[in-house]
Amino acid sequence: MGNKVKMIAIGLGITAIMDLITVKFIDEPKSFVLGSFVGIIVALINIFLLEIVINGAMGKGNVAVAAMLEFVRLALYVSAALIMYKISLYAVTGYALGVVILTLTLTILYRKGTSDEL
Predict the structure, then answer these.
(1) Which end of the chain is more exposed for a tag (fewer CB within 10 A), N or C?
(2) Where are the domains of the chain?
């Protein structure tokens, strides 16, 4: 569990640095930062749902549960993006960058062997 928390903290740190740099150059920094942190939260929830799918549903051969959880993961991404779109395009951009940066950070650190679990 410690490695997972360390990986998430690194992802949050990279996203925070991105936010600090970006807010100086855009008109709506609050909506961008909001979108960024919503993206982080959605990405974390999706990664934990993916872990459940891989370890639980697929390991036990329960394909129906795995398919349902995959649909929930996709619906979560889309619904959060639509909510951010209602706020502003800056929020959508922040959301997308938050999701991408956290996912890439966790993937890179996992592949480098920082974590033995995910």
Answers:
(1) N
(2) 2-111
Q: Which of 31-35, 70-74, 79-83, 102-106 has the highest mean pLDDT?
A: 79-83
Distance between CA atoms of residues 15 and 99, nearest Å: 10
H-type alpha helices, 53-88: 63-87
pLDDT digits (tens, 9 = 90+) for 72-94: 889 999 999 999 999 999 999 99
pTM, full prediction? 0.78
Look-up of token digits 């490695």: 3
Q: Residues 102, 42: contact at Cβ < 8 Å?
A: no
Residues 85 and 91 sit within 8 Å (Cβ to Cβ) = yes
SS3 57: helix
